[in-house]
Request: fold
Amino acid sequence: MFRGTFTALITPFRRGELDTAAYEQLIESQIAGGVDGIVPVGTTGESPTLSCGERHHLVELAVKKAQGRCQVIAGTGSNSTRETIEHTKEAEKIGVDGALLVVPYYNKPSQEGLFRHFAAVAEATSLKLVLYNIPARCAIDLKPDTVVRLTEKFSNIVAIKEAAGSVDRVSELVQRTREDFTVLSGDDSLTLAFLSVGAVGVVSVASNLFPREISQLVRQFLDGNTLGAQRLHQKFYPLFKDLFIEPNPVPAKTALAWRGVMSDEVRLPLCEMAKEKAAQWRATFNALEEKMSDEASQ
Reply:
């Protein structure tokens, strides 16, 4: 069962190439921060602009660096069923714990097409599979009826990263799917709300920056400390909102560059933040870090 906080890892670049040293350092910081798992080469990892060789190399590094200290769910989805199967089989050979399958983008398949796409992947692997529904990016919504069909037929489809922005959708999925199927929030700002209606974790962008605190938010809620989780949510809410002030992962990568952890370099068609947006993001980020520093010194 996938439960807890899973970091959607950023992919560091330097002068156009993978910065593997920064990548390994990022993974180590996640494990030290207590996350339950990491997700290499998802869309936060700029997977659409990675070559097949780069994707496989990053997954290998993640498994090797994790050394069983946390789970590894590889992003293997694409808008090609054949390519998705190839990536998933390769990830299975490498030794990941699961695969994250984004809804095929651009093609705009019907619900039957979506069912057949995910069914083909499920039939081709024994890996635990996590569906990923994000209509705002994919221009297609994986409907609850289709999710239910998939979970009824394939036992290795075990979770969904839900990023349609609907608490009602999470309630429906929890009610209609089998008991061992889990829902993970795909939106940091909605994690607390989703947890309140039955989700059991998050695939987080914010945890690239604050792994310990995001992990604490989820764990406190699941352990029954709802007030503690609410306080953390309120503290981090301004960051959750401004983290997407420009396309993901540009703001997160920019903040990590401010810390000196990696370059803020992204691959086209992504580019650096506009000056006015960067100023707003810097103010939000600095205010949070200063608040945390003040709390630590008290």
In short: The two ends are 39 Å apart (CA to CA). Strands lie at 4-8, 13-14, 17-18, 37-39, 71-75, 98-102, 128-133, 157-162, 182-185, 201-204. The chain has a mean pLDDT of 96.
